[in-house]
Design brief:
single chain, about 130 residues, alpha+beta, Thiol Ester Dehydrase, Chain A
């Protein structure tokens, strides 16, 4: 399944040239992952409270292909590329219409309260896979 999140580029998202500042793509894809997980029925607050598990970014491989600009309407596309017991790799693309502007593979790990690796509960793996 591919989740789609609409993002509008505001002035605050851009640099002096009116181009989206590179770090803001990471914010856009973070929102995309959060909404994907939420729509799959995973309550991250409850997961932390009940299981002591949180998600953390371990690695990001990103390609900046074309610039987005002030007032653009973008779509963040998010899907799970791979999943193991303790990590997920998300494929995330940012598009303006048919143009691919940004593409990333984001590795997310599950951590316990002590900050060590935690196994994802089976019901969470089923929801996200």
């Amino acid at each position: 399944m591919t989740h789609k999140l609409d993002v509008h580029v505001y002035y605050e998202d851009t640099d002096l040239a009116g181009i989206v500042y590179y770090a803001n793509y990471l914010k856009f894809i973070e929102r995309g992952r959060t909404e994907y997980v939420r729509e799959m029925g995973v309550d991250q607050v409850a997961l932390k409270r009940d299981e002591g598990i949180v998600f953390a970014v371990h690695r990001v491989e990103a390609d900046y292909l074309m610039p987005a600009k002030f007032d653009d309407d973008l779509v963040v596309e998010t899907s799970v590329e791979q999943m193991t017991g303790v990590r997920m790799i998300f494929k995330q693309d940012v598009r303006r219409g048919k143009d691919l502007l940004f593409s990333a593979l984001v590795t997310i790990v599950a951590l316990n309260d002590a900050g060590g690796p935690a196994r994802l509960p089976a019901n969470i793996r089923r929801k996200l896979h």
